[in-house]
Design a protein that fits this description.
With about 130 residues, this protein is mostly helical. The protein has six helices and two strands. The chain has a single domain, classed as Cytochrome c-like domain (Cytochrome Bc1 Complex, Chain D, domain 2, Orthogonal Bundle), CATH 1.10.760.10. α2 runs antiparallel to α6.
């Protein structure tokens, strides 16, 4: 039997031409991936999301700067030292469950890390990759 969450994930994956199965996504992240896909230029790639996450910007920052090398453990903010709970939905059941929080943190973190708002392509790649963690 296909679970309530797995079926929408499979449909999104098939529609976007993604071959890897998304295991830990939520209904919220599924819906957001569909919305970002309407503005994206290519199908989302978990590999591109992972690469974006670790790529340092000229300011020396990357997503990894605060969230740490492992998404499965607590990170700490690069500047303030504030603790950041694990990003992996497989170990933190609150991740990727609230649209408002996902949008808030994409906006804030993209501006802080990249000095700009992230594109729908970047958000989709990162969200897809995070949903598989």
């Amino acid at each position: 039997m296909i679970g309530k969450t797995v079926l929408p994930i499979a449909l999104v994956v098939a529609a976007m031409g993604i071959t890897a199965m998304v295991v830990h996504a939520t209904e919220v992240s599924d819906a957001m991936l569909e919305e970002f896909a309407s503005e994206a230029t290519t199908p989302f790639s978990a590999e591109a999301g992972a690469a974006t996450w670790v790529a340092p910007e000229p300011n020396g920052r990357s997503c990894e700067s605060c969230h740490g090398e492992s998404l499965y453990v607590t990170g700490s903010h690069y500047k303030t030292g504030e603790l950041i709970e694990p990003m992996a939905p497989s170990v933190n059941s609150e991740r990727l469950t609230e649209r408002r929080k996902i949008n808030k943190w994409f906006l804030r973190n993209c501006k802080w890390t990249y000095g700009r708002v992230c594109t729908a392509q970047e958000k989709g790649d990162i969200l897809l990759w995070l949903s598989q963690q």
